[in-house]
Amino acid sequence: MTESTKYLLSEDRLPKAWYNLAADLPVPLPPPLNPGTLKPLVADDLAPIFPRAVIEQEMSAERWIDIPEPVREVYRLWRPSPLIRARRLERALDTPAHIYFKYEGVSPAGSHKPNTSVPQAFYNQQEGVKKLATETGAGQWGCSLAFAGSLFGLEVQVFMVKVSFNQKPYRRALMETYGATCIPSPSPLTEAGRAILARDPESNGSLGIAISEAVEVAIAHDDTKYALGSVLNHVCLHQTVIGEEALLQMEMAGDEPDVVIACTGGGSNFAGLAFPYIREKIKGRSIRIVGVEPHSCPTLTKGRYAYDFGDTAKLTPLMKMHTLGATFMPPGSHSGGLRYHGMSPMVSHVKELGLMEARSYHQTECFAAALQFARNEGIVPAPESSHAVKAAIDEALLAKAEGKARTILFNLSGHGHFDMQAYTDYLAGKLKDRVFDDSLLDEALADLPVID
Amino acid sequence: MTESTKYLLSEDRLPKAWYNLAADLPVPLPPPLNPGTLKPLVADDLAPIFPRAVIEQEMSAERWIDIPEPVREVYRLWRPSPLIRARRLERALDTPAHIYFKYEGVSPAGSHKPNTSVPQAFYNQQEGVKKLATETGAGQWGCSLAFAGSLFGLEVQVFMVKVSFNQKPYRRALMETYGATCIPSPSPLTEAGRAILARDPESNGSLGIAISEAVEVAIAHDDTKYALGSVLNHVCLHQTVIGEEALLQMEMAGDEPDVVIACTGGGSNFAGLAFPYIREKIKGRSIRIVGVEPHSCPTLTKGRYAYDFGDTAKLTPLMKMHTLGATFMPPGSHSGGLRYHGMSPMVSHVKELGLMEARSYHQTECFAAALQFARNEGIVPAPESSHAVKAAIDEALLAKAEGKARTILFNLSGHGHFDMQAYTDYLAGKLKDRVFDDSLLDEALADLPVID
């Protein structure tokens, strides 16, 4: 009998429900606030931009929320995703640790993002919405929503941060292949965009500006809604299909993780793998949960836990989260998906409750880990996912140093096929690491809204 | 019970042997000839460039050849690959046909090529070879050999046609990520390269020149061999793992293909899916087998069945095959993997025996089919594979017009993540189709070697 490499679930074991961690939290999540009244947000506050079903999920305390059959039908194009034991990497590291990874790069857009873009497109279509507007930075989310829109007959308009729009033409090509339109932001199509362009016609854009443009389009048109790819509760909820599958697959493998690892930007791929394991931890299972972020954008490791805006333009509700300050501008890096000043409120809350730990790495050590991974396991990780790879390798080396067995499970949230420029730069020795400048943080945090 | 979308084999059903069609051919394959003596090639003729095990397979008449366990271990990183029923595409086409595709894009390099790069690297390593030299056009093969080399500790040197080297920097980045070196060809590293550069310092290179450079490197160094990614018998052999899996998976689906479709360049992905089905056809099963090629390089549909050289520089043995003439220069297209003047001798022989049919398409109609596929099934096909997609859609529409059920199986040999420029050009309306100029063919064919 040969050793297994992959643990595949048959389609009939695809989870039938998403898991809502809110139901099991020992302390309830602090509510989002209306920035005008500073009162807890009500459903009507969100009605102009999200469909009813999504707002319900955002506010739900139900433990299990059924995955609609049309969503499961689309999930089956790539789900259940494989759980893979990295046996070659284990041998290369000469470690007694077992290393498993859940591979979300098998999705059509190459990352975990379609786990939420598909249900979001479905609920919008069910409620008669004709068009979705969204923003995208590096392009992963824009591609995922473009894919989902194509399946449910929704028009999709993506405002892509102009600097990325110019740097990553193939992301735009993928969105257009799925039938979406992709517009460099700031654009002349919105008031928000025109205002920026009037001040600075050469503006490179930012995620904050792109969000403002997309939200403006959604508010201005009755048949148009907005969609967000991370941070919010309903997004974390949809991603839990990852962890629910992993629980079944680890059982197939006859192994149990001692440590569960994922990278954190807005927090959704972390939540997806980790929340089901945090449920087990709350129930009493002994397990460590680790979030990994870039040293250049250290939200969980250096941010303040406070109410803050979700966007730079300060248009969103106030959320209690780990934040570097809404005006904080993270230095450029190749992990565009991790360059966010805030953190999912649910993930932040979990951190405050001591249910997870967080650590940060420089990008070059993550690329070195990604290369070692690619040369043993064949898969080239997305730069974001390489943070989880680095942490998994460090845990495996620690196990070796301690001479202890250890079972490690991490989320390989996406592949790097659209990020090869980052690898080119790394291989050419062009990537620089910078020590994080705490004084920048002091400045941005001084600007936090004052909430009693 | 919901309808199945994917048919996954467990790892223990990964085939234990490759299938050699030579054992079942009703008429033996015409042998390759030594171009000097015009006598059938002997093993020693190939010894300077291939390891013994590969030469044996090239000349074998054994029906089944065991897949070594270390190769199966690597295969398990992505194999068995999924068989997917394209239910959403069926509904979009409103066809009574069932459409299945075998998806080879799940491999680390994104195509079927690692099915042969892995055993080739293994056999070379077993025989003490330290380095492999190869050529690559669009880059699929170079990436696949780079991946395989990284796993078996072999140095890999890839001569990449200069025009592609400059156009596709991310293919080079992928090779380097796997630890290979990638050199634009013609290069100053070889006599062949220097000769070309002396005549034309600005030469864009060609596959023929790149082959000459790689072969020269292999011959010049005792510890270095050459590796080829298509055309030859041992390559077709290694690819049959695709069709053997598909036979098991179609059984799981409770369906039997009426028609099996794959695109043809050098013939290896076609052979991989089709040869096991041709065995069944020879045994009496009623089934159509269709090879699909670009109208701009119509080897099977317009070429002559004759002895010809495998490379432009006329250094290789003579092979009996469908050929457009070794000096034929196919016009540029985005399906670089299909731009080859010849065809696998085994595939050519199968065509002559009437065991398969061939058809050709223009590239724009293939991209239109690829878009329809991507918007329904989520996967963006490689431009090469889009030829098979187009043929499958045409078969499904024919079934609809005839009001008949029909089961279609095609090989989706790779994804298009590294070919998004092609999609950009298509979407911008920049791709042109040209009617094939038969007079070019007359000229190239007049140049065929004269063999009695």
TrEMBL record, chains A, B:
Pfam families noted in UniProt: PALP
Reaction equation(s) it catalyzes: (1S,2R)-1-C-(indol-3-yl)glycerol 3-phosphate + L-serine = D-glyceraldehyde 3-phosphate + L-tryptophan + H2O
Cofactor(s) needed: pyridoxal 5'-phosphate
Xref: InterPro entries: Trp_synth_b-like, Trp_synth_b_CS, Trp_synth_beta, Trp_synth_beta/beta-like, TrpB-like_PALP, TrpB-like_PALP_sf
PROSITE patterns: TRP_SYNTHASE_BETA
GO MF, one annotated term: L-serine hydro-lyase (adding indole, L-tryptophan-forming) activity
Pathway membership, UniProt: Amino-acid biosynthesis; L-tryptophan biosynthesis; L-tryptophan from chorismate: step 5/5
Segments forming domain Tryptophan synthase beta chain-like PALP: 77-414
Keyword Magnesium: no
Keywords: Amino-acid biosynthesis, Aromatic amino acid biosynthesis, Lyase, Pyridoxal phosphate, Tryptophan biosynthesis
EC number: 4.2.1.20
GO cellular component terms listed in the entry, alphabetical order: cytoplasm
Principal EC category: lyase
Residue(s) carrying N6-(pyridoxal phosphate)lysine: K113
Coiled-coil ranges (or none): none
Family annotation (NCBIfam families): PRK12391.1, trpB_rel
General function of this protein: The beta subunit is responsible for the synthesis of L-tryptophan from indole and L-serine.
Quaternary structure and partners: Tetramer of two alpha and two beta chains.
Family: Belongs to the TrpB family.
Protein name: Tryptophan synthase beta chain
Gene that specifies this protein: trpB
